[in-house]
User: Which sequence fits this backbone?
């Protein structure tokens, strides 16, 4: 589990067609990538299985009802016209990538970034599934909502494991950041400390992933947020996809602190991030533009790798995000993404 070269596509917020994903797999193969992170669940939920029957301690949910509810969740989040990949299409894409030397790592984000799932739960009759007034994040105190989320993810974990996938990213970043400067800080409130529930939730999913023969991966935000070890110990087999050192009022643990807890690091430096449609000088958000990503890729080593003290990353990941799923993936954007994939060849440590 070394020398991973990963391309992440945010196919959760925005629907990308089978043909568009095939093209990106071809480009990745041409430029030495060996893993595609397919984020089917990130705010939106863009893949539906043929069998979606779910059973939890709180009830059973017919597959057609679950499919319909998740589709309603996508419509409520952002209607892309065609909103979901089919099981047959994703099965094809996994085989297509494998023939080109590329594995597929699915990502279904929770307990945050799950807007469509929250809507689906409400449609299915689960009351008050969200944390505070968040549109993205499940309330870890709502046992029925948590049970539904875990049952849904377990179905997908088992499906992807059956297709030979080796990694599964459970996301777990930005807990309720849509309504709080830091949802993790809220969970660590001294008067009502709930951060241990997040640690327990992540470990539960990591255990299911491992039981199905895959390696669990998560983003770094909630990994001992603010260097808090009192909420419990995370499963050390979780690979930490380290992307953010934080910002004012947002305090993830430093990468060297995460290293010291025994986790392997996948270098996911936000310096390489590209948000579809963002360009320097266009008057919009100037974070994660095409130009900034291309400039950072010219640097010999990333800020994440430079900060590591004990080891090297097990690999590096370039991420395309679809923060505004209404932005068209047109010929201009295809050309930009092809260019970024061509220029992504990071070293892991400075000379």
Assistant:
């Amino acid at each position: 589990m070394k020398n991973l070269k990963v391309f992440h596509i945010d196919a959760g917020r925005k629907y990308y067609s089978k043909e568009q994903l095939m093209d990106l797999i071809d480009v990745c193969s041409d430029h030495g990538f060996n893993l595609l992170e397919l984020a089917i669940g990130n705010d939106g939920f863009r893949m539906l299985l043929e069998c979606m029957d779910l059973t939890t301690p709180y009830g059973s949910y017919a597959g057609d009802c679950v499919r319909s509810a998740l589709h309603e969740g996508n419509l409520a989040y952002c209607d892309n016209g065609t909103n979901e990949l089919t099981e047959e299409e994703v099965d094809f894409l996994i085989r297509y990538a494998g023939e080109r030397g590329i594995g597929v790592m699915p990502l279904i984000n929770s307990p945050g970034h799950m807007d469509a799932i929250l809507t689906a739960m409400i449609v299915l009759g689960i009351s008050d599934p969200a944390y505070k007034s968040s549109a993205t994040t499940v309330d870890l105190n709502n046992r029925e909502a948590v049970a539904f989320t875990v049952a849904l993810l377990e179905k997908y974990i088992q499906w992807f494991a059956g297709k030979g996938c080796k990694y599964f990213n459970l996301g777990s970043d930005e807990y309720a950041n849509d309504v709080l400067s830091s949802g993790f800080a809220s969970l660590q409130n001294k008067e009502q400390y709930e951060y241990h529930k997040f640690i327990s939730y992540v470990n539960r999913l990591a255990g299911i992933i491992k039981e199905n023969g895959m390696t669990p991966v998560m983003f770094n935000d909630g990994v001992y947020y603010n260097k808090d070890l009192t909420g419990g110990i995370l499963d050390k087999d979780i690979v930490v996809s380290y992307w953010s050192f934080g910002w004012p009022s947002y305090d993830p643990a430093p990468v060297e602190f995460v290293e010291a807890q025994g986790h392997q690091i996948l270098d996911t430096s936000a310096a390489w991030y590209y948000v579809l449609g963002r360009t320097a000088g266009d008057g919009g958000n100037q974070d994660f533009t095409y130009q900034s990503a291309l400039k950072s890729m010219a640097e010999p080593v990333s800020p994440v790798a430079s900060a590591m003290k004990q080891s090297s990353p097990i690999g590096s990941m370039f991420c395309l995000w679809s923060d505004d799923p209404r932005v068209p993936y047109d010929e201009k954007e295809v050309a930009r993404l092809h260019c970024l994939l061509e220029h992504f060849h990071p070293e892991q440590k400075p000379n």
Remarks:
- The chain is about 35% helix and 15% strand.
- The first helix runs from residue 18 to 30.
- The chain has a mean pLDDT of 96.
